[in-house]
Amino acid sequence: MTTTAPRPAEGQLESLDVFRDRARTFLAASMPRRTEGDGPVSMREAKELQAILFDGGFAGIAFPRRYGGAGLTLDHQTVFAEEAAGYRMPTPLAVSVAMMAPTLLDHGSDELKERHLPRMLRGEEIWLQLLSEPSGGSDMAGVLTRAARSGDDWVIDGAKIWTTGANHADYGMCLARTDLDVPKYSGLSMFAVPLDHAGVRIEPIVSADGGDPHFFQEFLDEVVLQDGNLIGPLNNGWAVAHTLLYHERNATAGVGHGRGYRAEADAGDATGSGIDDLIALSRAAGTSGDPVSRQLLAEAHISAVVARQVSDRVMTGIRTGAFEGEWGSLLKLGMGIDAPRRGEIGLAVAGEDGVVWDDEAGDNIDAHSVRWLVSRTIAIAGGTNEMQRNIVSERLLGMPREVAVDRAVSFRDVLARRADRR
Amino acid sequence: MDLELADDRLFFQQNTRRFLERESPLEHVRELHRTEHGFDPGWWRKAAELGWTTLLASEEDGGGSLSGAPLRDAVIVAEERGRLIAPGPFLPTNVVVSALSAGGDPALKEAHLPGLLEGDATAAWASSGLPDDLRVEARADGGEIVLDGTAPHVEAAASADLLLVVVRTGDGIAQVAVPRTHPGVTVVPGRSLDLVRRFARVRFEGVRVPRSHLIDGANAVERALQVALTLQAAESVGAMDRAFETTFAYMGDRYAFGRAIASYQALKHRVADMLLHLESAKATTDAAARAVDDANPEAGRLVRIAAAYVKDTAPTFVQECVQLLGGIGVTWEHDIHLYLRRVTVNRAVLGTPERYREQICVRLGV
Fold it and tell me: Rounded to two decimals, what is the model's pTM?
């Protein structure tokens, strides 16, 4: 058979096999292949790639067609990811496409969805999350950013932090307090904030490795918005944030709508060693024949492969219905444990060469040592390992919840108590 | 543990579980501790009737899998066995059945397979030291093969009717089938940490068998090792699964300082890590079994990954259960030590995780 099956009419679900053939043909014809030595995909390239996916009908695979999606299922997304493993994929857009867009789909008004989702899925408009604040990371519902009524408008004041890629983004989903006189989870609302809006200022955060900034801080100073910017009902912001965090964990773990967006990492684990960098490091340091180093290298390889296998298992479990709930947290926990361990293994196999080098040393040593400094990032960002452990034990396994002293009182009282302590 | 069990495989799993709960509950396992071979031959025949011995034999040889994925089917049994620390030579018999069916001479098959498949006979796989430290040599002498040497730590050798011995030959390695009662074979029973699995040292002194008893080739040995390691990992995964259930339930019932110990964050966080290890162990074992069934060219590496991961993880995991159970966890009365014994033996038998990590490096070209 030389022709691809046509895209089926709406209302008739395409079989996975037919979809796979169609995806394979499309990818071969339209997307650039990955080759050895490729650099990471830049945001500019990502936007081009996302547009190709969109125009081919392969963006937002599990999104409804009326919002620019393909009207298929997450199983189709998985099949697509399998086929896409050898191609350059728009990885930098994973936040916007796989976290923000699904959240907007779940909670946004028809107007917001019709206006923004097609642009997001085409990569024309990039969204990010404005959740964490300088005053609190894990306790996200304790946000201090206020949205106050002024006539028919909302006026937002506050500061947000740890946003990824704010230098490229167009919109932020901003969690703000709209009612101080109810308990903390009940007085929050989510707003769509245009980042070029008057009163929004974005500043980069340089991380400990001294490299290009990945994270940013945003200052919101009398940002005036309308009711139409509300995502979900007034004072329902926690539910929206909850959905967003769910999609975030899935996207980080490479499952759900984000499957395939980590194609570089996924393909490495499935077909290669997943630890080429560590092997090169060990060889450069002359330790690849040392029995202890070899045990550690194998451990890193095993972790990389098992992480992929358990992720596949979770995807299968979600598909068959054997798994329900926040399994992405379990995978995120695994990443938060594996990444620092991998950093330690790098230090061990590199030895002295890992921390002292000159121009004769390869780039790899430098890169790894510096990466070690920030190897806890994945164990902190997107919910610390400790928060994932809470979620896994309490929500997945149903163990009793932690006692929370701020649950039954108004947020105004929480703030008053905090002031008393000082 | 497979998340995609079709109805017939699910039925098989439930049947296996019911059989074990009825015919070999843990009290029974404890009683078998005092017996010579650690299992009852009549019980083994019943297990064979349930299909425990036929999954890895071809249909022409009187076997057949449920699903066309024979090792994944056998993994179902191994996991259920692990959940109840079942007795009996399941792993060795299946490894030998698989090797005979795939590569045995027709006369050799005819002599041994029917008995093994029906549960009237059992087998042992003498593979200690594979691949670098094999201590049994085989040489050709006319139409015969002569074996000399000693195989240590051979599971179920004293009760086995047939031994399949991994031997060093002039130019490589191979397997030779030897009836246990053959002249020149001496079985010296030993003890192990496991209450019901028996291991023995087997000496071969000028043991002569016909050439037809040879299953030639390193590939056949590798295939047998892959089957053995996968079944062993599956058994440990089953043990982890049940140990976790038991411990988890206990944490909800046990109260300290006026609340269930399951409510303490220090303990909940440990349980979260344990779930990650448990699911990872299930995932990698399942992936290994699939790779073997699919003749995936990376099966050798994927099996070693599963083996190294589970061998390493399971003993620590069960010790974590002991810690969460507290004082009762280190008593003879509590069953958790049966699980600890089983997975600890599995850690070392058929090779340590350290050995398989080294082999993984070799396979990665490091």
Answer: 0.89
